[in-house]
Structure formats: structure tokens, C-alpha cells
Amino acid sequence: MGYAQLVIGPAGSGKSTYCSSLHQHCEATGRAIHIVNLDPAAENFDYPVAMDIRELISLDDVMEELGLGPNGGLLYCMEHLEENLDEWLSEELENYMEDDYLVFDCPGQIELFSHVPVLKNFVEHLQRKNFNVCAVYLLDSQFITDVTKDIEDYLNPEPQTLLAELNQRMGPQFQKLNKALIELYSMVSFVPLDLRKESSIQYVLSQIDNCIQFGEDADVKIKDFDEDEDQD
Length: 232
Ligand SMILES: Nc1nc2c(ncn2[C@@H]2O[C@H](COP(=O)(O)OP(=O)(O)OP(=O)(O)O)[C@@H](O)[C@H]2O)c(=O)[nH]1
Hints:
Blueprint: E1 2-8, H1 15-28, E2 34-37, E3 49-52, H2 59-66, H3 70-83, H4 85-93, E4 101-105, H5 111-114, H6 118-128, E5 131-137, H7 142-145, H8 151-155, H9 159-169, H10 175-190, H11 198-214, H12 225-231
Parallel strand pairs: 1-4, 1-5, 2-3, 2-4
Helix pairs in contact: 2-3, 3-6, 9-10, 10-11
Bound molecules: guanosine-5'-triphosphate (GTP).
Guanosine-5'-triphosphate binds near residues 13, 17 and 108.
């Protein structure tokens, strides 16, 4: 059985740096490891490349020959890889089977994971070839410290604290939007589902939509729905 580690994460999160450090660590500790470049747009490597998708297809060639942009070109390259799993990849893998440890430095574009099944099929192919596969997901540490991205804050929400922190970090033009989002969020979080009316949610969403479209002129004040109902 071989072993494979897929290094994934957003663009610039440190995937290649991680692969390079891992390679140095293994070299220093006398362990064999092979790093594979799966990014058809990659140019420079700090580690020796054992296998390289650019031998199959490169982003530059695709952009030049098919007139595609960088994102469409990348999707094309990865779909080409998917079509060549049995030929190119299987052939390359024959050099690395028993007890070998392969680390795949993957491209970062989220569309490759969310829109097309390329990476899923890639993993399944490795598994069929008797590789034990795991993934390492890298994330920039600002996702933990930035209030707008810190999931913990949203799991145990303190709406006024969140609102104050958002306003502190964002420009004044976002204050109405922040307030509307926090009010919507509070309503969604704290009101039991069966007590909510779809029309109420739609009203809030339409107000947020106004705010996004018309900026400061939008009325993002949230109505008191109970009062509305009493009046009706
Ligand atoms: N401060 C800091 N910088 C880092 C760290 N890891 C990587 N970097 C820097 O972040 C930049 C991007 O790192 P890469 O390793 O190229 O990131 P990547 O995920 O491979 O990027 P793409 O392949 O373009 O998606 C480089 O300038 C690295 O030197 C880290 O742990 N801390």
C-alpha cells in the first residue's frame, strides 16, 4: 500500500511552503517522501518535483492555444487530468507503489472543489490504486482572528458585540449593512423555526438587498413583525 497526502487550501495559504518544509524535515530525519505538483500554473518550487502535472498539460499552453483566461484555463487543465487518470497518472504512479509516501501540492481555486468532481475522482483513483489518502487543509491564520470569518463567534453569538466589532473593522459605509445582517442573523439564530414567517425573512432579505444595491440611501431598519401583524 502507498500513502498519499493532498495539500489543499485557498490560494496563497502556504501549500507550497508547507510541502517544502515537509520535504526538508523528511530529508533531515532520513525518511523518503515524494512531492507531486498538481498545479498546472505553478512555476517555481523549493522542493524536488517527483511528478508534475505540467508534463501532461500547462496553463500557459491552454491559455495561449484555446484563448481561455486563467480560471477557465485551470478548470480545463484539471478536467484534462481527470480524463487522463488511467493513462498519465496510473503510469506515473507505477514508480511509487509499495510504502511510498506521496504529497500532492494542489491548486487553490475553490471552483475545483465546489464546481467539478475532478479532485474527488482523483482521490478515488488513488484509492483504487491502493493508496491510503488523507488531506491537509491549510488556512490563513487571519480566518481565526478576523471577526467576520471566525466561526466560533457565530456559533455562540453575542449580536451587539459582533456588530460593534464589525463596525470597528469595516468602513462607515457598511454600518447599515452590518446592522441589517446582525439583526437577520439574530432572528435566524434565536427565533424557533415554526414561529417565523417566511414573509418576515423575505422582508429582511429585501432590505439587505436594497442596502447592497443603493448603499447609504437604503432603509435597512428592521420592522417589528409582531406589530405589523397586530395592525393587520
Ligand atoms: N507569515 C507567513 N507566511 C507564509 C507562511 N506560509 C507561507 N507563507 C508565505 O505566503 C506566500 C504564499 O505561500 P505559498 O506556499 O506559495 O502558498 P500556496 O498556497 O502554495 O499558493 P498558491 O499555490 O498560489 O495557491 C509566500 O510568500 C510564503 O512565503 C506562514 O506560515 N507564515
